[in-house]
Amino acid sequence: MQDKLVQIEKEFEQDAAQIASVENLEAVRIKYLGRKDGEITRVFKLLPQLAVPEKARFGQKINELKEKISQRIEQKAKELETQRKQALLSGAAAGPDTSLPSIKGRIGAEHPLAIVIEEICGLFVEMGFRVMEGPEIETEYYNFEALNIPLEHPSREAFDTFYLENRCLLRSHTSPVQVRFMENNKPPVQIVVPGRVYRPDATDASHSYMFHQIEGLLIDKGITFAHLKGVLGVFAKKLFGEKTQMRFRPHFFPFTEPSAEVDVTCIICSGKGCSVCKQSGWLEILGSGMVHPNVLKAGGIDSKIYSGFAFGMGIERIAMLKYGIDDIRLFFDNDIRFIRQFS
Ligand code: PHE
């Protein structure tokens, strides 16, 4: 009997050492611990043939061996599981490839307009401007009258927009925020105002009934047109490159006097003339001027003591030039394949 037990243990050790898979392990378990025909069951069946004192002694020995084999098999099972995990992580085994980027992680991208707004506001913040916002639903007063555009003024037409109830409308420019800010803040005033604006334009490759502007306003004692040129000059060079030139063309806005439209040298052809600048070498990028005394008055600021300049630019146009985008509608289609290209 003793020999038999020693032999079983020896054989088991040999079998155990060769286990390489869960299937092997299960086969070995059945061979030794199988209830019906396992080696252990078999030796238990031999016990009745033994004399009484031997029975007890070997009964205990068989149980000890059974326990030993069970523990060894459990230990083997754990080893196999660890090996399996390691193989998966190192990619050595076929299984999920944990080095692939996860699908959940794709959360979208910053919109090109948001990138450009951030960049432009950042340039003005470096020059001491604060970023402010104002309401998109505006009253007729702030959108027109306070900006020196009386009811019958012809320049209302280009700005005329979507009317709501109670003489409210979707603002046609960001300029109303000029007066709103002046009403609540004493000079010096130095703000930029990004935001959406609305106009009754038919949509095509370069027009949209909704687009974005950035307004600028600076008011203090002794501010002149030279300050306007200085600030916009720094802005244009930082945004479009050091070689960029500017030109001011006389223009009319009811809320500034004098007024000018500002062009920069074409960023596509550097001023040589191309299809984007219609062979002129120049691109119009913004409207500007010295704040009209009537506008200062509407904001509660004494135009005998203070003066200032204002400007307003369209963001879509600048973003289109910067990124070479030829259709404004692409900004608003909400196609993630388009949006992902810029950040
Ligand atoms: N509000 C004008 C527009 O929408 C732009 C502008 C702003 C012009 C400030 C002069 C001063 O076209």
Q: Encode the helix/strand succession as letters.
A: HHHHHEEHHEHEEHEEEHEHH
Please mark out the parts with pLDDT under 50 across 5 or more consecutive residues, or reply none: none
User: What form results from the Cα inertia axes?
Assistant: rod-shaped
Present as ligands are:
phenylalanine
Q: CATH homologous superfamily of the largest domain?
A: Bira Bifunctional Protein, Domain 2
The end-to-end span amounts to 79 Å
Main beta-sheet strand count, sense and barrel state = 7 strands, mixed
Tell me the total number of β-strands. Answer: 9
| Relative strand content | 15-25%
Number of domains: 2
- Please write the CATH class name of the largest domain: Alpha Beta
**What helical percentage do the residues reach?**
40-55%
Q: Specify the structural class.
A: alpha+beta
Tally of contiguous helical segments? 12
Let me know the average pLDDT. 92
Spatial order of the strands in the main sheet? 1-4-5-9-8-7-6
Give the second-level CATH assignment, the architecture of the largest domain.
Answer: 2-Layer Sandwich
Cα-atom radius of gyration: 41 Å
| CATH fold-level assignment of the largest domain | BirA Bifunctional Protein, domain 2
